[in-house]
Specification:
about 300 residues; 2 domains; binds pyridoxal-5'-phosphate; eight-stranded antiparallel sheet; D-amino Acid Aminotransferase, Chain A, domain 1; alpha+beta; nine-stranded mixed sheet; 7 helices; D-amino Acid Aminotransferase, Chain A, domain 2
Length: about 300
Amino acid sequence: MDTVEKIWMDGKFVDWKDANVHVLSHALHYGSGVFEGIRFYKTKTGPVVFRLKEHIERLYYSGKFLRLLPEYKIEEVEEAVLETIRINKVDQGYIRPLLFYGYGKMGLNPKGADINLVIAVWPWGKYLAKDKIKVKVTKYIRIHPDSTHAQAKITGHYVNSILSNIEATEKGYDEALILDYEGNVAEGPGENIFLVEKGKLVTPPANHILPGITRSSILEMANDMGLEASEETISHKRLLMSDELFFTGTAAEITPIFKIDDWVIGEGEIGPITNKLMDEFNKVVTGEDPKYNKWLTRV
Ligand SMILES: Cc1ncc(COP(=O)(O)O)c(C=O)c1O
């Protein structure tokens, strides 16, 4: 991976190679952490962070379920993110805030363990590496909404994502697609999904999934572009019959899907609506559509 000089750890900058934790850190054993993935983009006037506030607010929202309450205000964490980008002099890439139970207590009750917050940034290009991808419906189902708080970005949830991704990539696919416990479409291991049906956008409702910040950006942009968009239950059959399909996410941005298992979606090409949204998204994140400058924080 591309490295940079410094990582922010509990209020101090430390060298990348020294940003270590104790092997008995609680989160390492039990997945008791929450995190965010945020992107920052190069613009003509310097780097900007996309939807910084919404991401840090979601970090705090996720943390509440595990009683992970940091000692910093949201605004202080936003500023620490900007400082971490500045000190490392990177002009585009990825930001990873991680809030977790650290050293000091073993056993499932985390009370008494340290609460640590770290912020790392690094240059990162395309996540799914290709223009259009083929996806495998995984045998694993999305975590049942009553088993946990599915809308929180808790590190332990990601075992479900990792297993799904391993299964799909070992079978030669680029990514997995996860169904919910009723057999309806949920999301990707680290992405939300949209289909296009007769010119309209449809995405699964937010109750069983991580309601992505990119997803909500696309819903708002679609509305502004005069595209009809709705949140509806999507059966596996409906998914296959769609005209266009794409993933959304901070890492994946908008990634077109041309195949689900052996089934070719539409013409097997990037569809016109997906293309239009990709163009607009690119303008939005690089500050070229002033209407959405409200989503950008200057570094
Ligand atoms: C499981 C899952 N779903 C969806 C997403 C997309 O969310 P966002 O657009 O906020 O990055 C992510 C990435 O954070 C994710 O991990």
